[in-house]
Amino acid sequence: MELQLWHGRLNAKRFDDALSTIPVRVLRRMRSRLGHYAPAQRGQPAEIAISTRHVKRHGFEQALQTLLHEMVHQWQDEMKLPLGHGPDFREKARAVGITARAKRSVD
Ligand SMILES: [Zn+2]
Fold first, then answer.
1. Distance (Å, rounded) from C-alpha 7 to C-alpha 20?
2. pLDDT (tens digit per residue) in 50-80
3. For residue 65, how far is its CA from the centre of ligand 1 (angstroms)?
4. How does residue 1 score in pLDDT terms, banded at 50, 70 and 90?
5. Ligand 1 center to residue 107 CA distance, Å?
6. Could you tell me the residue ranges of all domains in the chain?
7. What predicted TM-score, i.e. pTM, was given to this entire model?
8. CA distance 104 to 29
9. CA–centroid distance, residue 51 to ligand 1 (Å)
10. Cα–Cα–Cα angle for 26, 67, 104, nearest 5°?
11. Which CATH code fits 3-103?
12. How far apart are CA 37 and CA 15, in angstroms?
């Protein structure tokens, strides 16, 4: 899947290359969520996962919006901010060009 490549592109274009390169995985077994960001834990590196079904059902453009959403969580984590959807999330989401619509049912 090209999403790993897009993580690099969006990092350069929208985040001024501020984010680390982390694995972006596309997972079949994600039932209710479109994507998630998992911080590093117990020796495992941080990663972003995107649901295969989400890509198939909503298309690549929407999947990129979800990737951007998860990248804002990555940014929060790397900035030592708490993960969540508070004011700092909303401000950064606007700055990187996430549309309001894409926020539905994304963790
Ligand atoms: Zn979220």
1. 10
2. 999 999 999 999 999 999 999 999 999 999 9
3. 11
4. low
5. 4
6. 3-103
7. 0.90
8. 19
9. 14
10. 105
11. 3.30.2010.10
12. 16
